[in-house]
Amino acid sequence: xxxxxxxxxxxxxxxxxxxxxxxxxxxxxxxxxxxxxxxxxxxxxxxxxxxxxxxxxxxxxxxxxxxxxxxxxxxxxxxxxxxxxxxxxxxxxxxxxxxxxxxxxxxxxxxxxxxxxxxxxxxxxxxxxxxxxxxxxxxxxxxxxxxxxxxxxxxxxxxxxxxxxxxxxxxxxxxxxxxxxxxxxxxxxxxxxxxxxxxxxxxxxxxxxxxxxxxxxxxxxxxxxxxxxxxxxxxxxxxxxxxxxxxxxxxxxxxxxxxxxxxxxxxxxxxxxxxxxxxxxxxxxxxxxxxxxxxxxxxxxxxxxxxxxxxxxxxxxxxxxxxxxxxxxxxxxxxxxxxxxxxxxxxxxxxxxxxxxxxxxxxxxxxxxxxxxxxxxxxxxxxxxxxxxxxxxxxxxxxxxxxxxxxxxxxxxxxxxxxxxxxxxxxxxxxxxxxxxxxxxxxxxxxx
Length: 448
Prior knowledge:
Elements: H1 2-5, H2 8-23, H3 28-39, H4 47-56, H5 61-78, H6 95-122, H7 126-148, H8 150-164, H9 168-193, H10 200-236, H11 239-252, H12 282-287, H13 290-296, E1 314-315, E2 320-321, H14 323-332, E3 336-341, E4 346-349, H15 376-387, E5 394-400, E6 403-413, E7 419-428, H16 430-433, H17 444-447
Helix pairs in contact: 2-3, 2-5, 3-5, 4-9, 5-9, 5-10, 6-7, 6-10, 7-8, 7-9, 8-9, 8-11, 9-10
């Protein structure tokens, strides 16, 4: 039996059977002992590989996410002897150290959420209830930021590196769990907002239960990241990759930490996902934890070797396109764009969407001659204000038949701060003013 338990194929097949039973409606509690026996010989570092294989064989990320709550709980005891990577071993400002530090703050707030929710449920004093509710509102509002900062940075900045190496299931399952936590916290915020719309007893019981679930989910995610995901990142990512991540982190923000600048050195080139060699070298394989090395044996990963920049592509700073693609992109935009250079000459107008007539004969024409004589002095005042840096935009809106036209002019400057021209953007906003409610990506099929 022990020999079978040490066989990854056996573990995988048994996990599939257990997941199928959960999928078919069998109570999770009834399966815990079977999970415990099966997973007792599985290292936390082997989980990503097992999940990768399960996804490839048709098991949905949603079903695997259901298993996470079970195996994370069971692994708490199993990993006590495992050497964990701690943030103190990393330099200040290193993106991985920041993630560890944020997880400490997330754990504190998750515990506070559960504590205050339980206290609220047993408090009879009205004044105390009010104070506790104020604290809970602050905690929940803070925890909503976890999804916008901590999880978002992982999804946007670190996932692409492991996906490039073919380890896609890890990212898929983590993102599924992230979204579950996001939904839980959002639901708590809605409960607090609507608390006066239901009897107090109903509200406080519901809030206590849901806060407990959210607290557990947040804690489990911290455990999963600290013991599984972060050691994987530490083993796979180079200083150049971490440098590229650090260059982009500030834009997304952090959860209750303020990391200092970090740079591994001027000689280290920042490496974006599309720039790395996705294949695992012998050195990289040897740097992986022993459990992962064992799990990878006989299971070659499907590396993503797609080249981002092609012959003839234009480097736009935030990506690469060829001229044909660029023209078609402009045709598809629901906005009419015109570019006027530093000498007030019309240099370009976009194809496709048209609000005002544009013909090729307008190219090279002074923009002043493109307007009625009575308004030229206004055009000149706007351009002068732009060139002198006194104004950052000029906006107008007017009715043209059934169209409600919005016009926006913005000055353009190069990296040296020199004025290079003005961009005019025009669009019919009438259809957008009719929009109400929400239509999310996941609801597309229902609306179509």
